[in-house]
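STRUCTURE:
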């Protein structure tokens, strides 16, 4: 399956990806994770990306597009992939579309996880991550277990100020890709409000994968 997860920051893209991937057996390609790895590795691209990310701004298209097109050309993505956080602008969507056409493959689904802005800030500022496993927690909705709690970290862009900027960028830059995928006929909307289990069930339904 070739699929994309779209949604505002904090919609639950990473949370749902972790729940679906074992079942789908495809690589999870998160541009946010790739960029954060480049920042940690201290590469030139990582140093440039860090400034944009900390401020809640988008990393320039030319950087991200090249990174993703190289990644989906790797052998493990030949039979499918789950893109998370890409595309995020109309030029990114058009570049991906061109690459898939050249490879003579099509997208199976673009899943849009919908959550209203008023819920987002609480989800983002309460998020914590386990740096060892990448597991995502929330201080209220999904607290880390006692043996993990001491080592969880908060992302640098999970401040209220950066979150509001990310939301603004989502509405101005990312929502224009929604009609693009509606026209291609592969957009599937999922209500992202409810427990993570409820959202997973909705995802399985729109992907026609049956109940867990
Ligand atoms: P990225 O890492 O992609 O961040 P994002 O899209 O802002 O999404 P998040 O990771 O914040 O949220 P999520 O939807 O995965 O939610 P999660 O599951 O963690 O990008 C970061 C930055 O990198 C960007 O701002 C940009 O600078 C740059 N970048 C990345 N891709 C780019 C691109 N293509 N072009 C340009 N720049 C790019 O959940 C959030 C919290 O809510 C967690 O605490 C979780 O436990 C909780 N939660 C999840 N589901 C539920 C639920 N159902 N109920 C209650 N709580 C829930």
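SEQUENCE:
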């Amino acid at each position: 399956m070739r699929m994309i997860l779209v949604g505002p920051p904090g919609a639950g893209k990473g949370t749902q990806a972790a729940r679906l991937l074992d079942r789908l057996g495809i690589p999870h390609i998160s541009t946010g994770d790739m960029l954060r790895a480049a920042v940690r590795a201290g590469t030139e691209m990582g140093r440039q990306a860090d400034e944009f990310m900390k401020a809640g701004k988008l990393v320039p298209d030319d950087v991200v597009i090249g990174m993703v097109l190289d990644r989906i050309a790797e052998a493990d993505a030949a039979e499918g992939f789950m893109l998370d956080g890409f595309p995020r602008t109309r030029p990114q969507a058009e570049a991906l579309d061109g690459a898939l056409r050249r490879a003579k493959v099509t997208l199976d689904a673009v899943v849009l996880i919908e959550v209203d802005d008023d819920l987002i800030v609480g989800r983002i500022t309460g998020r914590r991550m386990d740096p060892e496993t990448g597991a995502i927690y929330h201080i209220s909705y999904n607290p880390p277990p006692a043996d993990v709690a001491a080592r969880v970290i908060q992302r640098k862009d999970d401040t209220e100020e950066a979150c509001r900027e990310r939301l603004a960028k989502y509405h101005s830059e990312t929502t224009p890709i929604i009609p693009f995928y509606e026209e291609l006929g592969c957009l599937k909307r999922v209500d992202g409000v409810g427990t993570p289990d409820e959202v997973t069930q909705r995802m399985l339904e729109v992907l026609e994968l049956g109940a867990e």
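REMARK: The mean pLDDT is 95.
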